[in-house]
Design brief:
- There is one protein chain.
- By secondary structure, this protein is an alpha+beta fold.
- The chain has a single domain, classed as RPB5-like RNA polymerase subunit (Eukaryotic RPB6 RNA polymerase subunit), CATH 3.90.940.20.
- The protein has one helix and four strands, in the order βαβββ.
- Strands 1-3-4-2 form a four-stranded mixed β-sheet, with no helix packed on it.
- A hairpin with a 3-residue loop joins β3 and β4.
- The longest helix has 11 residues.
- The chain is globular, with a radius of gyration of 13 Å.
- 13% of the residues are buried.
Amino acid sequence: MEEINVAEHTLVPKHVLLNEEEKNDVLKKYGVSLKQLPRIVLTDPAIIKMNPQVGDVVKIVRKSKTAEETVFYRVVVRG
């Protein structure tokens, strides 16, 4: 049976793991702490192959009918 890569499915938005500098830039830009960001679990199928660590930040880029694309940020937490 062939393994399905959920992250590459057309209905799954693009997920990008930010490096430390990008993560700090996002927190500073929006004036928030990691605790204030929405969460995504470590075992989420869309990010599991990125080998994220607890406390990492994931940038999610979704297609939008009104704005072309919208960006969301999630902090990685244990499930």
